[in-house]
Fold these 3 entries.
Entry 1:
Amino acid sequence: MENLIAQIVGGALGGTAGGKVSPGNSMGNTGNLIAGAIGGVGGGQLLGGLLGAAGGDAAGGMDIGAMLGNLVGGGVAGMVVQVVVGMVMKKMRG
């Protein structure tokens, strides 16, 4: 559960950062946040499946390395999804 929360938070932060870095593709604060959070979860799940990551619990406690990996991975995936969705939305608006 902690991994999912870290992916959502990282994705939301990445989506917000993507809107700031690429203002032409921004969807507003709420749109950037939602796109980033969805991208963070999707990217985190995909990365976990590709790498064969375990649940992230080590000896009954939280694994800080896995948590930070999920946070950073979610942030990067969230930023990528926000920028791509922003570009598509911009194209659709004309």
Entry 2:
Amino acid sequence: MNIELAAAQLEALGNPTRLQVYRVLVRAGHNGLPVAQVQERLGIPASTLSHHLQRLIRNGLVSQERQATTLICRAVYPAMDALLGFLADECCIDEGCSAGSEKAA
């Protein structure tokens, strides 16, 4: 993952409402939820939800699919996994250098 994409995704999730929307969709699983159910669970106006969903979609964290007259929203799990991996993959990687010098002291 490149740092620009990671920064854009983290910025999108940095808004409390978008983070709530995203968490609702992650909890919903692979089947996702109709927009109306997301709105009902969060108690926010449709126009506000639409704005936040578009930001999450634009950054690759959420997808939408139309089924007849219903819009189904889903978390994009590979994007979530990539972002989490980007944050955690090199965790403590430089510690080996400092750990050796601490033992010598």
Entry 3:
Amino acid sequence: MAQLKVTYDEAVNAAYIYLRPGSEGARVARMYACDPIGVDGMINLDFDGSGRLVGVEVLAARTKLAPELLAMAEDVTEPEQSGE
């Protein structure tokens, strides 16, 4: 089984799980927002043009994902912008 790629932005507490190798930057044709009440949060499913699930976006990731998964995720947190 191929290893999943996971990115995490600590500043906004959002993670993205890439389900297909090389799907970074792939065009998402359709996004399905899961019922926030049903999942007690916000989780978005991304599909490609063929209807295949290519990624999962998890908001409020610290409450939804295992700490071990977030610890191994690639940090994509943007450095703070200075007001200069």
